[in-house]
Amino acid sequence: MINAFIIVAHTADGFIAPASKDGQAVPSTVWTSGADKKHFIELTKKAGVIIMGLNTYYTIGKPLPKRLNIVYAPAGTAPIDGVEMTDKAPTELLADLEKRGFSEAAICGGSTVYTMFAKAGLVDRIYITIEPKLFGKGMTIFNDSLDLNLSLSNITRPSDDVLILEYKVKKN
Ligand SMILES: NC(=O)c1ccc[n+]([C@@H]2O[C@H](COP(=O)([O-])OP(=O)(O)OC[C@H]3O[C@@H](n4cnc5c(N)ncnc54)[C@H](OP(=O)(O)O)[C@@H]3O)[C@@H](O)[C@H]2O)c1
Known about the structure:
Number of strands: 10
Strand order of the largest sheet: 5-4-3-6-1-7-10-9
Largest sheet: 8 strands, mixed
Oligomer: single chain
CATH superfamily: Dihydrofolate Reductase, subunit A
Bound molecules: NADP nicotinamide-adenine-dinucleotide phosphate
């Protein structure tokens, strides 16, 4: 099966997005570092395919170039140029991507999509960037219970204030 990894930026207090004041999601690019953006571009371009939910897509607002953009959206959502909409089960989607020649897929959030792939047992690696930021309240990476065991396979410190942790998900 294709290798799927989660890539996420966290505040030091464990949030992936601030609490919404007006129902509008805040794009991660507003608060993440240049080091995280570079890391995200490198890994996602290497994979060649990014998978995200519609809410996350709206915070980005355009397809990311040089990568296949797959967006989870409810059936009937209006098509978006440069994006493949899907509502397939995660296993089916990854099998389909494998048939199309991909060997890796980047799971790019948000919480709904991270949780769906993690609960399906389809995540092989997790990259967490720890940003020097606190939100106090907000959205966490997962929105449901999980029981996954990890091994810490790499730590990088691309700048004084930023850490990138790479975990492997232990398969039972
Ligand atoms: N810090 C980071 O690294 C990072 C990364 C990515 C995103 N984020 C943040 O995460 C937030 C968005 O997360 P979110 O959980 O609200 O939304 P999301 O995961 O981005 O997207 C949810 C959307 O995907 C649809 N969807 C999910 N599973 C589906 C399925 N199996 N079939 C069809 N449609 C499906 C949902 O449809 P339904 O409405 O029908 O459920 C909903 O429209 C934003 O604030 C964003 O900034 C942070």
